[in-house]
Amino acid sequence: MKIIANETSAFQLKRFALLGMSGLGKTFISRSLVKKDSWSHYSVDYEIGKLLFKHQHQHLLDGFEIGNLTNLSNFLGKPGSPSMGGISFSEYLTRQQLHREAEIKATLNACSLVENSPELSHIVCDTSGSICELVNPFDENDKVLSSLSKNFLIICLEAPDSMYQVLIDRFLAKPKPMYYEENFLHSLWQAFRNDLSNINDEINPDDFMIYGFKALIKRRKEIFDTISENWGISLNFEQLRKVKSAANLIEAIQFEIVSKIKSQ
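Predicted structure:
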């Protein structure tokens, strides 16, 4: 369990990495710490976009900011009929791979930032909701988790089942592009096509995104639970609702660290 070895420096210097499903409050908490307590905020999603758009897609940098990541979603796209706003599955796979490479680099860049400035403190790394698709939480040598754990205190945000239903309802109202682990994506795509007996050109992109999200949310919750168990701590929804400042967050984290150490 990594937290015992590294929590002292990461906690004392207040370097936290927030992990969890999109919609649970990672960015909201991060931006609150910036506004109220002058913390530094490293947004992995924002850095992914900067990496992806700096060459071929520079026009997508227009209006792209931490508070508006729409262009990153638009770049990922949705597979399905072009007449319904979709792209070919092969193009979707290409963009998924580009996103994966950029996310790994952007996450490791956050670690390099700390390693190059060991005195850096009061910084929150707001990770992408898809980080769980890039890592193996059972592998103690996993590159991404090892680097994060070395430089930040890993904090997974968790919620009751009712909150995950809220996330599903939000997605149903407005399906958005998502990143999937490639093998999982292939299995989803094949199963979806079999269920509908459709060819690619007839597939509604939003229907596939809804189908995929319902399968994805359970999968991701299980992975994040394992990450919190093996690599850090978790904060539940009731604790998160009370976080209005850095002091609130630090108090909740300290309580969880003590509880986790006592339980071992």
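Summary: Residues 15 and 23 are 22 Å apart (CA to CA).
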